[in-house]
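User: structure tokens for Serine carboxypeptidase-like 18, please.
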Amino acid sequence: MDAQLLSRLLFLLLSLIIVSGEAATTLVTSLPGFDGALPFHLETGYVTVDEEHDSELFYYFIESEGDPRRDPVILWLTGGDRCSVLSALLFEMGPLRFVIEPYDGAAGTVPRLHYHPYSWTKAASVIFVDSPVGAGFSFSRDPRGYDVGEVSSSLQLKTFLAKWFTEHPDFLSNHFYVGGDSYAGKIVPNVAQKISEDIEAGLKPAINLKGYLVGNPITGEAIDLDSRVPYLHGVGVISDQLYETIMEHCHGERYGNPNPKNVICAQAMDRLKALLEEIYNSQILYKKCNYLSPTPNDKTTHARILQQETGALKHPPPRPQVDCHGYITYLAYVWANNNITRENLGIKEGSMGEWVRCHEKDLPFTHDIESSIKYHRNITSKGYRALVYSGDHDAVVPFLGTQSWVRSLNFSIIDEWRAWHLDGQSAGFTIAYTNNMTFATVKGGGHTAPSYQPERCLAMLRRWISSKPL
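Assistant: Done. Predicted tokens:
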């Protein structure tokens, strides 16, 4: 065999390895902390979304537990500053949740998991994606790949979907929705619009986009935060006098401006912040927790176990009391930084030193979508469906602000404000507009709603995704 032919064969072999590596996925049949085989189909994998910097997005794909060949497919994005979508999977609408019990860090154990009966995978297949690059297990081999923003990460998600559907053509005919909550509410309508533009241009693969859904979403508009003042007044956190002072003296800076322009407003803001410290903002009826400072022995044991598992311990979360809602974040940190967990999930060796729920301010990110409202108007004007929902006990992004910007779209009402029901009781309230837009509140829901009211949120999803009135 001559040298030239051998060279060509080696190049072909290398190309096949690279291509197969791109498409490589992991079928996950078991996970640490869960007894027995998983009772659902879980696939994980990576998709390269930036060839220049070798950046890859990590995903969890869970097939519908109903009829995966006919049920819709949802791309789900989580909120926060570069937060891992594992939060959505394990805290909100996925088929597994942590058993809430004291975790003592005994060698060889991880926090326990149990099956979650109100998973959204009862009604749809869900692609949970760690986005942007740097969130969760998504990574870049070139550090410059972490320098992304709202626009660029939206385009990378479009690239992700094109490649994912190319590798999963059996799902191309399924109805497809883009979904997300909290901060992802700013990204979702932009991604939906980008997909619709590709459809109009006749680009392949032809994704069967039907609409999008956002929960407790931000828009980038001032109303996202300004609505906290009337909301907190309405639920009795701030007094009439403080409310009136803020409304009169804090024009245009009712919450978002950290440096109020006048003394009266500054004093009012200080009182407001002090009162906010008395409640748990994500669900105002829940316990306001004090985080425990571990004893020296606890700290030593905890650190030793995690260092044995990962070789790194840079961002351990605070350890709250077991009966605090935030305890699940502590459990997730321990679970996701376990070597067996990573092996079962198919995490690439050396790609991630330490899993953290959110990377806050330690990686560059450009906020270049000033407002997402125009995308809501554009995409619904093209005939795509939209569900906007809010937990009504959320003081982070109160439903009053969301309701306000939905009204600002000036769509005609086709179904007046009314209760929607589950088991004969109101589960929230809803209103439907032209342009296929539905707004709904979830009674007892917080930030985010499925974390606190999973049964009601699954009922809401089932009805809406089946094009039935709530």
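User: Anything notable?

Assistant: The CA atoms of residues 419 and 429 lie 4 Å apart.
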